[in-house]
Amino acid sequence: MKTLLRSCALAASLLLSSVSAHAAKDGGTLAFLVQPEPPTLASYVSTSGPIGLVMPKVYEGLFDYDNDGKMIPILAESYDMSADGKTVTFNLRKGVTWHDGKPFTSADVKFTIMEVLKKVHPRGPNSFREVSSIETPDAHTAIFNLDNPAPYMMRSFSAYESPMVPMHLLEGQDVKSAPLANNPVGTGPFKFVEWKKGQYIRLDKNENYWQEGLPHLDRIVGRFIPDASTRTAAMENGEVLYAAYNAIPNIDAVRLKERDDIDVTTDGYSMINPMALIEFNTKEGAFVDPAVRRAISTAIDRRFMIDTIFFGYGKPATSALSSNFKATNLHAEMPNYPERGDVAAANAILDKAGFKKDGNGVRMTAVLDLIPYGEDWRRAGEYMKQAMGDIGIQLELRYEDVPTWLKRVYHRYDFAMNINYFYQLPDPVLGVHRHYGTNQIRQGTHFVNSSRYSNPTLDALLDSGSKEPDAAKRTATYKEIQTILANDMPVVNLFELEFLTVYNTKLKGAYGSAMGAYGSFREAYLDD
């Protein structure tokens, strides 16, 4: 079969970058916001958002993706796919070295996929589920053998999604606890130098980067500023030049964008399809009965949350899948997802299910854990407390630091109801299945099936949906999946997030990747 990324396309890509390199200015330090502080730097173990802001500058993937979804060669120069889709041969870039000077080879790719991403990464077991083996006939060729075609796999090779890691620093160790986690060694444009806890992470220019003339910046510094108003002030006075994923609250972003030196964009999130949601503990506690979960979804005024808390940036959820999947005919609107909420209907569901109110109008009490990513989520929690009070569910809010929250939800399952957001990514197999599959109940792995929801019928449908080559049959399968989930509701989707990136206009070249802030910043420069 034809080579899907021909060497001429690669040459054109490198030529454009080379031209850009001549026009861009070299030197300088970019300070940007990382909110909140990462729990670890092991992006091959955890996909926690703050990790994604830092580590794609250090680790690289086989490819990147531009804002039109086209693949950009990074550690792989090209690939060939067999006619049956079961063999994919990657032609790796020569002359690439790890930050410690060791060569990057096909052995690193094989080890990363088979021993790391398929085993410990939150999404890797789905992304590479069909990869049964990898052959390495030479140092610069990696041949993926698949049990079934997996076209979605080709959308999962970014540095954020599938970081290539050094075999020589992980082999024979416990991947989850190895020293590499917080002393990362990658192939990327920036090298890890220092993590000053509570203050910043410093990355310096990789002088031996494989692409000549890049990166432009001498240093990038990810700063941790817990207080929202202080973050906004830092952007206003030029202490930081870039803030993504609503690190600057929307209420301030809409004000700052009126300035000449600051701009705001929603670009850079096209590959991730972020969805705000509620995870329930389906095994114990107040929300075991699906009727309660359906009532909660029915009562929520999604439009109010978007307009009042997130200043109009967002779109109400209408099923377990983002409406962005309409483009591939996989999304279907489902019941129990009213845009404005229906308190009377929600109360009727609870009455019918036998959950009666006491003398104070309370049916049940529970704790709502909040994702500790800033003030917007605190306000979302306050709204949920009020809205659930209207249907007799009395909530207490709990807001902890990131490591404590992650351990509570994904290690100990010590929660009843958790407000969070997940990335649904370019295909449901990559971002949605991990919520619901029985095989995704992986204690200690972040951002998978913490609800511990298990349904053999759904498992079979998820498996079928991941393999089905016929578009019409795949559409029918995903309608069944969404119908089951609209009834069982182990997860209630709230709204499709539209994140804002606030940046100083003197920062150039940082916006070409569909991964946005999760990109490498290799072409970023400062134009004073």
Report on this model:
- With 528 residues, the protein is α+β, with helices and mostly antiparallel strands.
- Helices cover 28% and strands 20% of the residues.
- It is built from 16 helices and 21 strands.
- α8 packs antiparallel against α10 and α15 packs antiparallel against α16 (471-488).
- The longest helix is centred in the C-terminal third of the chain and has 18 residues, at 471-488.
- It holds the Pfam family SBP_bac_5.
The CATH top-level class label of the domain at 274-497: Alpha Beta
Mean pLDDT: 94
- Total beta-strand segments: 21
Please count the helical segments.
16
Q: Kindly, what is the distance between the CA atoms of the first and last residues, rounded to a whole number of angstroms?
A: 48 Å
Structural class call reads: alpha+beta
Largest sheet, described in full?
A: 6 strands, mixed
The low-confidence runs, each spanning 5 or more residues with pLDDT under 50, are: 1-21
Helical fraction: 25-40%
CATH superfamily of the domain at 274-497: Dipeptide-binding Protein, Domain 3
Features:
single chain; 528 residues; alpha+beta; Dipeptide-binding Protein, domain 3; six-stranded mixed β-sheet; four-stranded mixed β-sheet; 16 helices; 20% strand; globular
Question: Briefly, what is this?
Answer:
Helix content is 28%, strand content 20%. With 528 residues, it is an alpha+beta fold. Pfam families: SBP_bac_5.
